[in-house]
Design a protein that fits this description.
223 residues, isomerase, Precorrin-8X methylmutase, Rossmann fold, 6 strands, 11 helices, CobH/CbiC_sf, six-stranded mixed beta sheet, alpha/beta
Amino acid sequence: MTSNIVTEQLTDAGRRIEHDSFAIVDREAGPHHYNDQQWQVVRRIIHASADFEFNGLVRFHPEAVAAGLLAIRRGAPIVADVEMICVGLSTPRLDYFGVATHHFIADADVIAQAKAENSTRAVQAMRKAQQLNLLDGGIIAIGNAPTALLEVVRMTSDGLIKPALVIGMPVGFVSAAESKALASELRDIPWMVIDGRKGGSTLVVAAIHALLALAEAEQTQLG
């Protein structure tokens, strides 16, 4: 039983249901190769999707969880590819760590630039985030747009940005699997990805909520 307060459900009934759900996931997931902290992320993804195939599909850079926790403790921004991620994240949990979320996919200037360059809004949104200096040291959270992840890979590979963590979980059929494979080849930038076509904003939210819970538990242990 966790001693977390901020990152727990707000009622006893809610906490019991969530804890019982996690216990079922732990029992039915079978063997896995994840360490304890990585498993907290994976089981929340399974909990959010009821899909046990994520046991094995989720992959981590060796420093991914530690980098994510440090970024959260520092109040680093989270830049998402779509509004759904920002809406899905718990405001009280983010506020506890002073973390702000950002998305630019629907901004008029982003749309205009995408049309002018015949690119995608997701690409231009990531470029706008770079121009606003939100990507260096931030958490980049991508659950919908493979082109956003491809642009992040390009910018990191070109040395234009150095995010604290890239969460690359876009869902889809065109470039989704390929974008995540490329992200997993980054060596100096920590990443979390879901192999293949599966993914989605809900799973990114679950991963971030897992990091927030781990950050609170770590903070409690440190006193």
